[in-house]
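RECORD TYPE: protein structure
NAME: histidine kinase
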Amino acid sequence: MTSRLPFSQRIVTAFVLMTVLVSGSFSLGIVGVVHFVEDQLITKELHGKLSLVLHEDIKAGRAPRLDARTRFFASNSAVHPIPERFAEFSEGLTEIEDENEAAYVYLTEINGVRYVLLQEQQEFEDREEILFSVVLAGFLLSIVCAWGLGAIMARQVMEPVARLAGQVRHRDQLATRTAPLALDYADDEIGHLAAAFDSTLGQLRRSIERERLFTSDVSHELRTPLMVISTSCELLLENQLHDGQREQIKRIARAARDMNDLVRTFLMLARSGPVDGTEAETVTLADVAREQAELWEAAIHAKGLDFELIDEGTDKAGHNPTFLRTVMANLLRNALHYTAQGTVRLVLEHDGFRIEDTGMGIPAHEQERIFQPFVRGSAARGEGLGLGLSLVKRICEHNGWNISSTSDQETGTCFKVSFTPSRAVVYRQALEDK
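PREDICTED:
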């Protein structure tokens, strides 16, 4: 399972956990060794004292010669009888520690006689408590030091990573004159990562440069003949023509204008900026809607369909004419192609527009893929390549618009374009700006 903690916090956590494990083991070892040595030394000491009392003092008929902290008891002695509280003690060393007393009790049995040696240990317990307090303080101090050292190490380790991430995130990295990132880093893992990014970025720059050159070539090679076609149509319309010829020339002129707008659209998307001052030119939604209605109404009626233009509160803001025309035209063309009978509606709203049709609808399993390039519906008609809705999606993302679709195979399809970006769009743009 992938950890969600930042890498720097994981470094600090690793330092602290390692210290807890090592320092905790040492601390527990110290406590265990102290208790073991205590038992061994005290047992040996009290056994020696008891042997001395039995073989020298008791055997000679003298009173036991012991210091003030040590007392002697025997089961066969009327002078030093064994207290009842020691009656159930087993042989060997027993430690007594309560609120009233801290002592060692050493008990042995020789020839059926039980002997007890009691030695007070309050002073030793006080020193032992001090020792354990020092061990605990050292354990806690080691954790604090590990946390501080881990934080310092994490900062030093992550500094080049954070610096590299900032350089990679910088929007000017695609500039052709940007110095290679690997020069700023040592020949280590971070340096290798920077070198790999330099290599990938170089390939990306070359790809973008090829695309820019291609779009420039398209601009020159296509727009010039389109201008010739448009000019020729204008000159032809000045001649005496019958209605059929005049209508055909107008169709050619409209197609040339549409082609010119499409070329302009691709150029603007590829360059991520205005082309030939188009950014200064703006149109309202109502103007484009009326224009597109005039262009498409005849074709829609020719197919036996009804067309409705409904204004529910028109957006008054100015928009890029090329982008708005391309989006609306592609959606109207899509509605025309996929509607066999019924109505096509262009509905204007206060923050966008929607295009509704009573066509065959889009199957549920295809709705998530309709905005992908080269994807056509299972009921596709005509010779399209499946790029219309993909282009619409790209334009909407380029302008921060939001496009959504709802479809039912019984009632038809509705595409809604909102000039107010959705939360997802706002979040994505915020990430790109960082």
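COMMENT: The two ends are 28 Å apart (CA to CA).
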